[in-house]
Specification:
mainly alpha; 71% helix; 0% strand; disordered C terminus
């Protein structure tokens, strides 16, 4: 397996691994009904950087990756409003907690796609995601989605305002 990427792609890959690591303590915190402090900050900043750096990568047309970047941007904008404009008041705390979970889920989905398109043993099970023989890919993605849906519902119910940020306006 040769990973002959440009510097820009390597930078994007490294940045995109940060929310996968930081997301674990963030989710644990949300499930415990609290904020995870600096882990949340690292996670949120790295999600923003991952999305932004994805837009500067070379692409032929409007690819699925760019579509995902647009979706991620909308989630990020909602999260910014929830936290910094509305101070996580009322329903905005749900926007924040669901946004954190959705951001983590999207990053996990991208990781799974990349593993199935770059790791030879996984490539043999589904050379192209969605192609015939891609049953393992579909099972892994659906399983991941199911886990994130359950965790997101629990997190949204348990998360309480802790260390609420004052409205910027």
């Amino acid at each position: 397996m040769t990973l002959d990427f440009s510097f820009l792609v390597w930078l994007h890959v490294i940045i995109s691994l940060v929310p996968l690591v930081a997301g674990v303590p963030v989710v644990r915190g949300l499930l415990a009904g609290r904020d995870s402090g600096w882990w949340t900050e690292i996670f949120f900043v790295s999600v923003i950087l991952t999305t932004a750096s994805g837009f500067v990568l070379p692409a032929a047309g409007f690819t699925p990756a760019l579509k995902l970047g647009v979706i991620s941007s909308v989630v990020i904008l909602a999260m910014l409003a929830a936290r910094y404009r509305f101070g996580l008041a009322g329903g905005w705390r749900h926007v924040w907690s669901i946004g954190l979970m959705l951001s983590f889920c999207l990053d996990a989905f991208v990781l799974i796609v990349q593993l199935f398109t770059k790791v030879p043993v996984l490539m043999r099970t589904a050379p192209v995601p969605g192609a015939p023989g891609g049953t393992l890919f579909a099972v892994v993605q659906l399983g991941t989605l199911a886990v994130f849906v359950v965790l997101t519902v629990i997190a949204a119910r348990r998360y309480r305002r802790v260390g609420v940020v004052t409205s910027a306006v």
